[in-house]
Structure formats: C-alpha cells, structure tokens
Amino acid sequence: MNQQELSDRLSEIKGKLIDTQQPLDDRIFLLCEAENSYAVNKFLFEQLSLRFVIATGIDSDDCFEVLYHYAYDQLGYIITVRAFIRDIENPAIESIAPFLPGAEWIEREIHDLFGIEFRNHPNMRRLILADDWPEGVYPLRKACPGPATGIRNEGNK
Amino acid sequence: MKKMVKKPVLAVGPFHPLQEEMEFFQLTIDGETVTDIDMRISYNHRGIEGISETLQFDQVPFLVSRICGICSASHPLAYVQAVEDIAGVTPPERALYVRVIINELERIHSHMLWVGLAGHFIGYDTVFMWAWKYREPVLDLLEEITGNRNNYGNVRIGGCREDIPDEAIPKILKELDKLEKKTEMLTKAVLDDPVIHARLKGVGTLSKEDAIKYAVTGPTARGSGIAIDVRRDDPYAAYNDLDWNVIVQPEGDVFAKAVVRLLEVLEAVKIARQAVKKLPKGPVAVEVKQIPPGQGCGHAEAPRGETFHYVRSDGGNRPVRHKVRAPSFVNVPSFRASCIGQHIADVTITLAAVDPCYSCTERLAVVDSHNNIIQNYETLLKMSREKTEKIRKEIGTPQWKLEDF
Q1: pLDDT in tens, B182-200
Q2: By the 8 A CB rule, do A37 and A66 touch?
Q3: Rounded to an integer, what distance in angstroms lies between the CA atom of residue B98 and that of residue B106?
Q4: What is the CATH number of the domain that holds B134?
Q5: From the candidates B41, B226, B320, which should be mutated to test the interface with A, based on the most A CB atoms within 10 A?
Q6: Which terminal Cβ of chain A has fewer Cβ within 10 Å, N or C?
C-alpha cells in the first residue's frame, strides 16, 4: 500500500470515527468512542495487517483514553487509535486480546494502573501490581497521590 | 485422565549469579515435554512512567536511560524523538551521527553479551569467554565517548550532550577493525560447528504467524522471517545516509536468532565505521526553550527490538503522560508459542533466545503433571548442557583438552 491507498482504506472505517488527525506526515491519530474501538482495532489488525505496537492508558480531564498504537512498517507510519471512555465511574472497554494475543499483557497492565475494565479479556489477573496492593487504588490515576515527590502535572496549563 | 495438580512456587535466587533481574516462569510438563507455561513479571517494578510525570522534559532522558543498563542509549533516543516531534525541532547533523555511533556500539556489546550467555546455557563456555572478551573494548570506547560504560546519558532534546572528540576517532576505527575480525572468526566458529547445528536447529521455533499475533520485534521477529527494522522502516538519526542491510532468517528457531544477532554485529560495525568516517563538522545540539502542547510517538531500534515511547504535553514543563514500551514486553509473551511442546532441556535456551534482558530464566519452577516433581533453574541448566554433551558424543567432535593449546 502506498500513502494514497492507505488513506483510502482508512476511510472505510470513517463512520466509526469522530475525527482523524495527522500532526506529522507519518503519524496518524484516529479518534473514536470506546464502543467502536473493538471494530476499529480489528479492522486495522486483520484487514490492514498493521503491526500492533502497544496500548497506552491516560487519565484525561473528563474521560479515560486508551490509545492503541500500530505501525505500518512499509511506510514507517505510526497509526494510533484514540478511544475515549466517557464513563469515569466505571470505565470499561472491549478487550482486543481475543484476536490479538500480543495485547493481553498491556490490557492487564492498564487495568492495574488505571482501573479500566477490559470486557472479555481471556486472563484478567494482576500483571504489574503486587499481590498485597490494596483493591481499588490505581497508581496512575490523577486522584492517586504521585510517587516520591507527590508532584503531578495537573495544573500548569 | 486429568489430575488436579497444586502448583507450588519455587524461588531460585532472589538473584541468580548469572542473570540479574527477576521474572517467574512456571512450566507444566508431561514427561519430558512442556505442556503449559505461566509467567509472572514485575517483581522489580519501579514506576518509571509515574516518576516521569514528575520530572521536567530535559530530566526525563536521564531517568529512561536507567530503565535498562544495556538499552540505555535507545530508550532516551526514542523519548527524545517523541519530544522533538512535538516541538518540531531538528537536531544538527553531527548530533544525528553521534547518536548512530553510540546506538550501534550499544548493539554490538548487547549482541556479544547474548552470544556469550547463549553459549554458556548450552555448555559452550569457550564461546562465553570469547564473546565477552571481545565485548570489553566496546564498553571502553563508549566510556571514552560518553564518560560511562553504561547509562551514557548522552542524548538530549535537540541533540547530544557530549561530542565525540576528534582524537578519539582513530582509536574507534582501529577498535572496530579489530572487532570485525574477531566477530567474523567467532561467527564462523559458531555457525560451522556441527554440534551447535544439531543442538539449536528446530529448537524453540516461533512461526511467522505466531510472531505476528504476538507482535514481536527485533531479532525475534527477524529470526522468524519478518523483515522489520525501525532503522530502515522509519529512519531516524542518520541511518538513511548509511549503507547497511537488514538481516532476516526465515526458520524461527533458536539457531536463526543466533545467526541474526551474529550477522547484525557485523552490520553494526559497518554502520558505526561509516558514521565515524562521515561525521560532519558543527555543533551537536540546538537550544530548545519550550515544548508546546501536543502528542508524539518516538521509536528506535534497540538491540532487542523496537523501543516505543509516547509522550503527551500540555504546554507545561513536564509531560502529562509518558508511556514506555520496551521490546521484551512483547517478546516475552511469545514464549507461550515457542515453548509449549518443546523438550524440557531446550527451555533455557528457548527462553534466552529472545534476549529477554537476561531476566527471564531467573526464577523458574517446573511442575510435572504426573509426579509433582519440582525442578529448579539449575537442574534445567544442567539438562540443557547434558543434551549438548550427548549430541557432541553422537557426532563425535573431538574433546579438546587444555594440553592441546
């Protein structure tokens, strides 16, 4: 696929996206709601054969975000699905591990650190946190006191 | 017949003298065959991503270079590239070449370390001694350039912290020439050895399909026939101006991964030599005042595979989110595909074949589903060496004695 074919293929899932951003030529961000993330990820991995890189959880201002990073190595692109979870009380999103075993660990890690539930995950045990870590304390949430210095980047906009 | 087995946990360590980090593997075996593998990591979680949010942008490279003592050039490089993307900064050309030289020297010493340990695991201690001996001058070179044998801390947003002094260049070229000859010799000795062929071929095979599903990177992927290399696919630093090859082997077994690494050392020598010879004149850094709001993805090819960093800025002086993915995070889970069905004596070398920061075989317990025998890491290492010895006897390689030399 060249650049044009790639953007043609990406437009097939346009209905599931909120927006597409391209801050640099080889960095594409696809914004979508949490409900559509499973379908978008499945399309990128199975139809476009992108290489899964990793996922990132973020505690944003009024929502949680899960970012799924993919690489398209023929062109050197990084394509990121940015899924928004609006329910901050019980954040949940569909797991992509059933068709992408490489995502199993990172979903467990995000679950540990942010308390985001991954529905239909094949093996949702703790990965990062210790066995005696208290339930319901999620270290990378903004509400959790920061490590060591207690400083956290919240208000310097 | 299925029998319920309690799976006891046996800790060998806490630190094995050879391997310095902690991970826990529990193997379920039936007779001599591995039927299941369970992994636990994070005995040593340091919360780097959390700490990073408390540091200023220009302090973070020093933090992330401490993620791994071996990949301490590629982690900061990936981070710095992500931030440079956000800020729209292009470092001066000389800095790009200095980055290439340091990263390739890092690759050489990391691969040499692996070759040595792989030899040790299968009972080839001569390979271990050779490889580590040839690795030593590379660390000395890195010390001369950056001031440290590891944790170079040489890369910063907008360029490099230290320049390569002109006096050091003849020495670097001389050492690279020496190293190339030694590596060629070592590569021949290892790849022509019938015992190593018999011992490593067809062992711990990771098929191309599994490699894609588990999203593995680096030599683990290239040993399974997937030709990916960030240095070529998304060229950073000065890799685009240099002439080199991506090494790929289709077989997917431990032997293929060893071949990839050994030949990559020779490529790395080639790259480093060209970069030293072409090193342009000029400054090595530009001043970066402010990081605007935005998000950036940076990746670099570490010795073990792609290192990926995601950074988000809100325009302040600290990142609001910094995600790090080390290559072992995706390479290690692929053990489920490469170990199950293997002979138990092949487990140590299969686990070692992805070069998992030398951490993975550290805490290891084996559960026999019939007899409940627990075997620890030392027993496994012994079994691995005995198998080599057996093959050696069958093939009839002469046993070398000290008097022969």
Answers
A1: 999 999 988 888 988 998 9
A2: yes
A3: 12
A4: 1.10.645.10
A5: B320
A6: C
